[in-house]
Design a protein that fits this description.
heterodimer; A: 511 residues; alpha+beta; 4-stranded mixed sheet; 9 helices; 28% strand; B: 605 residues; alpha/beta; 6-stranded parallel sheet; 23 helices; 16 strands; 11% strand; globular
Chain lengths: 511, 605
């Protein structure tokens, strides 16, 4: 069953002013009422109230819309709550918000932190009463400003608690009030127009009645004059009129003179105008507006920081969250600027939409178009920034496949050589090749693997140490075994590999 | 040219917004404030929001009253003719309209124009029943003294020919939200100054109250409606053409058309529809036979006043006013007569001869062994109590001296008596009334107790002496004859035989106040006869006529009786005319029976 609005209002009111309330069957007893209300009401507590005409109780007052108590309660509240400070109590879970707002394809969020600050709204509550004929309508309008513009926010869905002036910097309300008034006028326009339209119909009907009446009256006046004139014409036609006829003519002339007085017509017109004006006044619309309340409503705004991270790249992001609009600040694709829902972390640490992502042919990882703009100067395939490396020697950008070594500095295949002994990759100039096999050797390995022989550098593979004389010579100077083709020392009688005799052959070779 | 709607805007500017120094209030108070505004959202009038609170102040909850008020408010925008039959409480219905309009904030400036005798009654009713303070217009500058103003139309309609304007022209400068004319049957002549005064008053809403919107001539109805809503019945010629035919001023040519037109602007209920029961007034004139000694005293005193009443310088005091003030006392009681004679004897302004004669008569009065009138009163009281041991009795007299005399003489009956005199404080009045209702057997009152009090629990009235103004007598009877009276009323009136009083009592009681008229009808009849106005001396015209007849008769009772009879016949004709007009009016204004409405049950609180 629908609660009686008067009953709930009465209960709320007395609870609010800290009066004592007690129910005795259907009679509400109010005691401990503040003195200022008693003075306003003109009656001291206790008050015994009933809300249903069927609940008969001696000394109890039936509360109806026109009751003095209701009027007094309304009057008591008129001066109250003119200015209020309220806080929207909200503390959302950002992880949920972020994960709900964005989906990450190849990364995840990490280290999300938030900072809180306060923004404020100013809400003006206006009550406008429209009074016309015997009707009265009342409208409440809530106009909310955020910064300097109107905010269409439904505050009612949030929990509001009492605010503390120390938490925020109070805004300047004076500046916005005139704007609010102007905006109110535009909000009231449709209602005014609707009422005026209805009133106009009624007014026109009444004015029509009056105008019609006075038109008829003037017409009758004219007809009367015409009739008399006709009568006079007829009577004056008589050549020798009788005494009675002359008298009649005289009287008719007097009547005509009376009817033709300008004041007569003027009075009729004056009367008509008076009545038309009266009707206009009757069908007027009176509007009275008052500012019921100015509320400063402040709410937290959050600044969220964190990282989008995957195995290869990390990207720092900063967002803001407005709990009123339930909106995170948008993240645009760094390639096409579309607002992101699905995020792909580019290998270049760009955040992009799936449309802007392409796989790097080199590493097969997603990259943005910008990052894949460049190609390898060697193989001419596009590659991402990660994969494209600039040779520190020739400065050509090549994909990393062409880099045997990347540290300590990147050197492409063309500019680098690898030590045949230790495998160290260095610039070509840093290593010496064997004149014979052209294998390179780093400075370190040169000591043990590259020999200077007869003005040539020969590597250990291209030279041999004679076991007889201990001298190193080019391998070409050493014959080969006829049987196993191993290199033979010129001083050796047998092949060290297959132990065959080859003395004379060797001598022959060398003589 | 099309008229635009007049829109007036007002904006209550707040105080400055200095938030630094403002103390913020709780939001729960704000919610309450918004809730309060939501409660006020109600717009269209579907019921009377003020009625439940006012109901406790009304003696009886009569549904036709709030129903009528609602119809006027909701369907007629408070502009209409409230033409309920006499006795149905038009004042209450109008009061409900006023209260509702004030509570809904669309009525602020209200003007009520009434006959002079009803001004105070309106003030009292508005205050006691509707908790509305109203002010009376006393002078031409009073028109904006308050929001609710009441004025006597007779008083304010005066036109100053030299200045060519109404003396109270300021009434035409106030934009009234509601104008009410009570007893508007006086506005039937479009050419009267009264009519023109009312027509010029600017008003947004207009209520005309009259039980008799027309009586003798349909043109009266036209003039009334012409005032109410111009053009509603067309021009005069159109009205005549459509509704009047030669030889019959009262019955319309097209009654159904006229009824349709009237229904748009009129609320009219008949007693039969309301279920209210009206009890009978049973007149009981009790003849008092004076003893020869009493009769002689009476004759002598009349002689003194008519022929031997001289001032000290020898000139005859023949001023009617003087006689009018002394004669009623003398006919009231012997005690009052003695008091008057003593004053004449003691007053130096009288001629010694006059004083001498007065002294002689005084001596005779004092030597009277019997007071026939008071003995008769005791008989009546005893008789009433024998018939009904619980029956309460209301006794009226014009004079305080007589009142005290009656109390003294009724004391041996061992009945509880309460007195009601002028000058009593309001609280004391309430106490006396309560005592009469609950425990006392008899209430004796002067004329003060005739106004505005309700004794419908009592059905026995004794007029110990009778005012010569029938309206005063009607007022007395009206204390018993009210809604809620459950028994027929016994109206006893003492009339000393072979005196002027006998004939006057017969005229007023048998031919005016107790002939079956419903309360409220007599003033209309007297108005129709031109007898309701004040005479040259400021008293009721009919009273002055009777006094003049007394003076001219020069103690010739036969001549006086003939004059009174003439007046009686005139009144009878007036009553017959009224009854005839009433029947025809009801025929013309007939509604309700057509709708098959049944009478409602009377409700007692």
């Amino acid at each position: 069953m629908e609660e009686n609005p008067l009953k709930s209002f009465t209960l709320n009111f007395f609870e609010n002013i800290k009066a004592s309330i007690k129910w005795e069957k259907n009679v509400l007893e109010i005691t401990s009422v503040p003195k200022d209300f008693e003075t306003l009401f003109g009656k001291r507590a206790p008050y015994l109230l009933i809300f249903n005409p069927e609940d008969i109780s001696p000394n109890a007052e039936l509360i109806s819309p026109g009751s003095l108590l209701i009027t007094s309660m309304k009057r008591f509240l008129e001066d109250k709550a003119k200015t209020t400070l309220q806080k929207i109590n909200v503390d959302p879970s950002f992880t949920d918000i972020i994960t709900a707002s964005f989906s990450l394809k190849n990364a995840s969020f990490s280290n999300i932190t938030k900072n809180k600050s306060y923004s404020s709204l100013i809400r003006f509550t206006f009550a406008t009463v429209f009074q016309y004929l015997n009707e009265k309508e009342q409208l409440l309008n809530f106009i909310t400003y955020e910064k300097d513009s109107i905010a269409n926010i439904d505050i009612d869905e949030f929990e509001l608690i009492e605010g503390k002036a120390s938490e925020i910097q109070l805004p300047n309300v004076d500046a916005l009030y005139p704007t609010a008034k102007e905006h109110l006028k535009s909000l009231l326009q449709p209602k005014v127009h609707e009422i005026a339209k209805n009133l106009k119909v009624k007014l026109e009907k009444e004015q029509q009645r009056i105008k019609h009446h006075y038109e008829n009256q003037k017409r009758e006046l004219q007809l009367q004059q015409d009739k008399i004139q006709l009568q006079l014409v007829e009577l004056e036609k008589q050549p020798t009129p009788e005494k009675n006829t002359l008298l009649r003519i005289e009287r008719l002339k007097e009547s005509l003179k009376e009817l033709q007085r300008p004041e007569l017509k003027q009075n009729v017109e004056k009367e008509e105008q008076f009545l038309l004006k009266d009707e206009s006044q009757k069908h007027g619309l009176a509007m009275n507006t008052r500012l019921l309340n100015t509320s400063i409503i402040y709410y937290p705004t959050f600044s969220i920081q964190g990282y989008i991270k995957n195995a290869d790249t990390t990207r720092y992001i900063k967002l803001s969250y407005n709990p009123l609009k339930k909106q995170l600040s948008p993240l645009p694709c760094e390639s096409c600027t579309t607002l992101l829902k699905e995020i792909i972390l580019c290998s270049g640490a760009h955040i992009i939409c799936p449309s802007c992502a392409a796989l790097c042919p080199s590493c097969a990882k997603p990259s943005c178009k910008n990052c894949l703009k460049k190609s390898c100067t060697t193989c001419h395939r596009p590659a991402c920034k990660t994969c494209l490396i600039r040779c520190s020697s020739c400065s050509l950008t090549q994909c990393k496949h062409h880099f045997p070594s990347l540290s300590p500095k990147p050197l492409c295949q063309s500019c680098s050589v690898s030590c045949s002994s230790c495998g160290k990759v260095e610039e070509k100039s840093a290593q010496k090749p064997c004149n014979s096999c052209r294998r390179s050797y780093c400075a370190t390995c040169q000591k043990s693997s590259l020999f200077s022989l007869n003005g040539k550098s020969l590597c250990i593979k291209c030279s041999q140490l004679c076991t007889v004389c201990g001298t190193r010579r080019s391998s070409s100077e050493f014959p080969r075994c006829d049987l196993c083709s191993s290199s033979l020392c010129i001083h050796a009688k047998r092949c060290r590999s297959c132990r065959s005799q080859f003395g004379r052959q060797v001598k022959a070779h060398f003589t | 040219m099309e008229e635009e709607i007049v829109i007036t805007e007002s904006f209550e500017e707040p105080e400055s917004f200095n938030l630094e120094t403002t103390s913020f209030e709780s939001s729960s108070l704000l919610n309450l404030k918004v809730e309060a505004e939501e409660l006020s959202r109600e717009t269209q009038i579907t019921d009377l929001i003020g009625y439940p609170a006012i109901k406790k102040n009304l003696e009886y909850a009569l549904p036709h009253q709030p129903d009528g008020a609602l119809k006027l408010l909701r369907d007629m925008n408070c502009t209409g003719l409230l033409a309920d039959e006499v006795g149905l409480g038009k004042t209450i219905t109008a009061g409900l309209v006023i209260k509702e309009g004030i509570m809904r904030n669309f009525l602020k400036k209200i003007l009520i124009l009434t006959p002079p005798s009803l001004v105070d009654q309106w003030v009292a009713e508005l205050k006691e029943k509707f908790e509305i303070e109203a002010k009376i217009v006393e002078s031409a500058n009073d028109w904006e003294a308050g929001n609710v103003m009441i004025a006597s139309l007779d008083r304010v309609k005066i036109f100053n020919k030299e200045q060519n304007q109404f003396r109270h022209y300021k009434a035409h400068e106030v934009p009234w939200d509601l104008l009410i004319i009570d007893e508007a049957h006086k506005l039937k002549d479009k050419n009267s100054i009264r009519w023109r005064f009312v027509d010029r008053i600017p008003k947004k809403r207009f209520l005309i109250l009259t039980a008799t919107p027309f009586q003798n001539d349909l043109l009266e109805l036209y003039n009334l409606l012409h005032l109410l809503k111009r053009g509603h019945l067309g021009t005069l010629n159109e009205f005549k053409k459509q509704f009047l035919f030669k030889g019959n001023k009262r019955y319309p040519l097209n009654p159904n058309d006229l009824k349709r037109k009237l229904q748009e602007v009129m609320v009219r209920r008949k007693r039969a529809e309301t279920g209210i029961q009206y009890m009978r007034r049973i007149p009981k004139i009790v003849a008092v036979d004076l003893t020869p000694e009493e009769y002689l005293c009476y004759q002598n005193i009349c002689e003194l006043l008519k022929k031997k009443y001289f001032s000290v310088n020898g000139s005859e005091i023949s001023g009617r006013l003087i006689i009018f003030s002394i004669l009623p006392k003398i006919t009231s009681s012997s005690r009052a007569a003695i008091e008057s004679l003593e004053r004449i004897v003691a007053d130096e302004k009288y001629h010694p001869k006059t004083k001498e004669i007065a002294q002689l008569i005084l001596n005779d009065y004092k030597n009277l062994k019997k007071d026939s009138k008071i003995e008769k009163l005791v008989e009546i009281v005893t008789g009433i109590r024998q018939d009904d041991s619980q029956g309460k009795i209301l006794i009226y007299t014009k004079h305080p001296t007589t009142l005290h005399y009656i109390v003294e003489k009724l004391a041996p009956l061992n009945l509880k008596i309460v007195k009601f005199l002028g000058g009593i404080e309001r609280e004391e009045r309430t106490k006396i009334i309560k005592e009469f209702k609950e425990s006392a057997d008899i209430l004796i009152s002067t004329e003060t107790g005739a106004e505005g009090l309700n004794f419908q629990f009592c059905n026995n009235l004794i007029n110990y002496d009778l005012p010569w103004n029938p309206m005063s007598v009607e007022q007395r009877i009206g204390r018993l004859d009210r809604i809620g009276q459950k028994k027929d009323m016994n109206i006893f009136s003492l009339a000393t035989k072979n005196t002027m009083e006998e004939h006057v009592v017969d005229l007023i009681i048998n031919k005016m106040c107790c002939i079956g008229l419903v309360i409220g009808e007599l003033p209309i009849i007297l108005f129709n006869l031109g007898l309701d106005e004040k005479g040259a001396l400021g008293m009721a015209k009919i009273e002055e006529m009777l006094m003049d007849a007394f003076l001219e008769s020069k103690n010739n009772l036969t001549r006086f009786a003939a004059d009174v009879d003439k007046l009686g016949n005139l009144i009878l004709e007036g009553i017959q005319e009224y009854q005839k007009a009433k029947e025809q009016t009801n025929e013309v204004l007939k509604e309700g029976e057509e709708n098959g409405r049944k009478p409602t049950q009377i409700i007692h609180p």
